Amino acid sequence: MATDVAGLALSLAFSVGACVGGGWWCVQRWRQARILLDTPTSKIRSAAQGFVELYGVLKEQVEPPLRAPLTDTPCVWWRYRIEECSRDSNNKLRWRVVESGTSEAWLRLADATGECLIDPRGAEVRAATRQSWHGSQRHPLRLERGGLFSLLFNQSGYRYKEERLHAGEPLYAIGDFHTQGGGRTGLDLERARGEVVREWKQDFQGLLTRFDSNADGRLDEPEWQRVQLAAGLEAEQRHRQVSLQPAQNIMRRPGEAQPFLLSSSGEDDVARSFQWQAAAGAVACLLGALATAWLLQNAL
């Protein structure tokens, strides 16, 4: 009886998990698809500050181009994964990830009106260039590549996957957009002053040297007021310096629960893919609910 109860509990855990997880995935992907379709495409020069959608062409950065770690191919962004194949105690082949990585270099997107720098950290990147192959060595650049032969006649092998974005390719991007410099950045004095004070506090001894006029080892109320005044003046000076710099457009991960997506495919293709994934999530939710009901009915 104990075995039956344990088996029932495990089955219920899987069915409930499929139901809840599928439902969450369905709602999440459907919501993201609607956001993509409802957000109009903006031109970089006239884009509003905040959550925007851009479409343009990737450009090379000024610094030397990146090279993908597995194929040594020049690119502007990469992601890779290396999996090792080995046999378990039952002599079954198992794949496990032994190494992976993602480029954090910024991207430069251009359209007919201007350019925007994109910080790809935290983005869902859907690259058109994807390569997968097998080999007998962990690092295919350092040693000669193998192939499926190595998996058939050796106890272990490796599977590689590499994704890349290249200069000259189109890119669809949706995320948080803002412009620095060019006199467009407004000053939130209270916030900027607080940032300066926090920066100064990291060298508290230096702060005491500058503002502890009675040398008692602490900052009293009048001394702290002078700190606040000096920090405000410093914040205004920094803001003036930034405002004099040329305007620079930047896209980053949104702070709210909004999608941050970079894709070689257009908006319609991505939204359609999300809708199919939402449908798959709905099917998983329905099957999980039916399985849960069936298990509970047979348990009674």
Q: Taking all residues together, what is the mean pLDDT?
A: 83
Low-pLDDT segments, ≥5 res: 142-155
Amino- and carboxy-terminal Cα gap: 14 Å
Order of strands, main sheet, comes to 1-6-7-12-11
Report the sheet-strand fraction: 25-35%
Helix count? 6
Tally the beta strands: 13
Secondary structure blueprint with pairings:
Layout: H1 2-38, E1 50-59, E2 66-67, E3 74-75, E4 77-87, E5 93-102, E6 107-110, E7 115-118, E8 124-126, E9 129-135, H2 148-153, E10 157-165, E11 170-180, H3 189-201, H4 204-211, H5 221-244, E12 248-252, E13 261-263, H6 267-299
GO biological process, one term: protein ubiquitination
Protein name: RING-type E3 ubiquitin transferase
Subcellular location: Membrane
Features:
single chain; 13 strands; extended; 300 residues; alpha+beta; 5-stranded mixed barrel; 4-stranded antiparallel beta sheet
Description:
It is an enzyme of class 2 (transferase). It is a single chain. The protein has six helices and 13 strands. The protein has 300 residues and is an alpha+beta fold. The strands form three sheets. The protein has a five-stranded mixed β-barrel with strand order 1-6-7-12-11. A four-stranded antiparallel β-sheet has the order 5-4-10-9. A hairpin with a 4-residue loop joins strand 6 and strand 7. The longest helix has 37 residues. About 5% of the residues have low confidence.
